[in-house]
From TrEMBL:
Range of residues in the leader sequence: none
Organism per entry: Cladocopium goreaui
Coiled coil (residue ranges): none
Presence of the UniProt keyword Lipid biosynthesis in the record: no
Family matches, as Gene3D superfamilies: Tetratricopeptide repeat domain (1.25.40.10)
PPR repeats: 227-261, 262-296
UniProt entry keywords in alphabetical sequence: Repeat
Protein's name in the database: Pentacotripeptide-repeat region of PRORP domain-containing protein
Length: 375
């Protein structure tokens, strides 16, 4: 990846040098050469350079075309100001009497999809207003934008209303939307009409979580047993229903046969053990994750601390926080709240108040912690 980035940096730097040299030598570079340089800058996400090159084209009386604008949209993708930049680019495009095509609007949808699903749908609607035919890229990008923005109902609606044969990308986007909306039956319906891959099954398994369809999740897992993400998703379903025995059994199976569990796997198993009042097992699993050098973080620590809180083990909860500090972990309000509640359940009022004072010092004090100490 570093090599690719270096090569890309070289390309746009070389393009800039050519541009500078062309100016000094009075060379007449055409639209094709400029568009190539804009595309090179876009690949590196150097949106300022890309837009500057387009301004240079205008100064040289070169016409901007759909390729120029498609590259501009690609260049601003992922920027915090992508929504505003895309609006400016689109306005400029119409002012220059360049009509966007499907490729251009796809680039605009993708550019804003992670920030504003409403804007993504506006570009999607613009396509129909201009009598353009959306393609599978349009559909999957618009659906992903809706799901990212918690508008999963709209994503599913787009999928159902699409007048095209879905491919695996759009079908997976539909399953992701169903998962976000906890619609496990709809997810299975989509799954049954496609040639599914691991991504499909992970989405379908995740859709089972809120309705506690843990048996179904385990059945789905049989289709991709070697995928650690799928295994972790299944364990998360087991955790949601408090099936800690099954979660531990699946973890043990992963240890023996693979795939190797990751920190997300351990987070869910530890949380499941907490729900099952298995505080000692939760602590042991945290120690095991550290031994395996998985670098358990704040989420893992919180799960173990919450397990101790449910088991009324205030000494262990406090020790976990101390261990977390020693490991340079960020101790957040969730961890402190769990430890404070553990002290309260153990009638350790002084310890609970000390926790609250430390939270206040760190500006983490929350109402839930005050209630735990004062109840």
């Amino acid at each position: 990846m570093q090599r690719a980035k270096s090569e890309g940096s070289y390309q746009w730097q070389h393009a800039s040098e050519i541009l500078s040299g062309a100016g000094s030598a009075s060379l007449q570079l055409g639209s094709f050469a400029f568009n190539s340089m804009v595309a090179s800058a876009a690949r590196e996400r150097l949106w300022q350079l890309a837009l500057s090159l387009q301004q240079e084209m205008l100064l040289r009386n070169l016409r901007l075309d759909v390729y120029s604008y498609a590259s501009a949209f690609n260049a601003v993708r992922g920027q915090d100001t992508a929504v505003e930049l895309c609006s400016t680019i689109m306005t400029d495009m119409f002012s220059k009497h360049v009509m966007p095509n499907t490729v251009v609007l796809n680039a605009a949808i993708i550019a804003v999809s992670a920030l504003a699903w409403e804007e993504a749908l506006a570009y999607y609607a613009m396509m129909k207003d201009l009598s353009l035919e959306p393609d599978l890229i349009t559909l999957s990008s618009a659906m992903s934008a809706c799901t990212s923005g918690s508008a999963w109902r709209l994503a599913i609606q787009l999928f159902r209303q699409a007048e095209m044969q879905p491919n695996i990308v759009t079908s997976n986007a539909a399953i992701s939307a169903c998962s976000a909306g906890n619609l496990w039956q709809e997810a299975l319906a989509v799954l049954s009409h496609m040639e599914a891959d691991d991504i499909s099954y992970v989405g379908a398994i995740s859709a089972c979580r809120s309705q506690k369809q843990w048996q179904l999740a385990l059945d789905l897992l049989q289709n991709c047993p070697g995928n650690v993400i799928a295994c972790s998703a299944a364990i998360a379903v087991l955790e949601a229903d408090g099936r800690w025995q099954f979660a531990v059994a699946l973890l043990d199976k992963m240890r023996r046969r693979g795939p190797s569990p990751n920190v997300v796997t351990y987070n869910s198993v530890i949380s499941a053990c907490g729900k099952g009042q298995q505080w000692q097992r939760a602590i042991d699993l945290l120690a095991e994750a550290r031994k395996m050098k998985l670098r358990p973080g704040t989420v893992t620590l919180n799960a173990a601390t919450s397990a101790c809180e449910k088991g009324r083990r205030w000494q262990h909860a406090e020790q976990l926080l101390r261990d977390g500090e020693a490991a340079k972990l960020r101790i957040d309000a969730i961890g402190f709240s769990a430890a404070t509640s553990a002290c309260e359940k153990g009638w350790q009022w002084n310890h609970a108040l000390q926790m609250l004072q430390e939270m206040h010092r760190r500006r983490l004090l929350e109402v839930v912690s005050c209630n735990a100490a004062l109840s």
